[in-house]
Amino acid sequence: MLKKNQLALILLTLVLMLTVYYITSPFDKEKNPPEETPTETSGRLEELTQMRLTLREERALTVLSLDAIIASNEATVTEKENALKERRYLNTLTEKELLFELQVIGRGYRDCFVHASELGVNITVVAEEQSLTVANELMNEGVLLFGIDDVVVTFKTVQQVMGEVS
Questions:
Q1: Structurally, how many domains does the chain consist of?
Q2: What's the whole-number mean pLDDT along residues 132-153?
């Protein structure tokens, strides 16, 4: 009797998930293509998004090489352990970068790009005005979050960010 109840619960959950998917599906959006809006006026900047993608691709390649070491029959236990630690470190670093970007954007700034490594943390904030107080706060938060003393905060306008990438 218990297995029948579990099966019924699983099927009910599946039906509910499919219902929610079809209600929120993007099928209606295909009929009406969205109007193109300039990158400069709203949302996150494509240039910084491209920088994020490049960073993620580099880290994905590093994780692949670490996975190869972990899966290797020829690697020693110490090498596998170090590769696993490095992989966890990279995943944690990526999560912290994303969290910090969202915190900065939550303060009302247009966009933000955070790149952290063993050497330091670079924070680029897209804003029309520079604030020494905000820069100091971001530096302190960066030191606390990443545990790295070398934190650099840079304020740039949309035009400066677009000019650097172009």
A1: 1
A2: 92
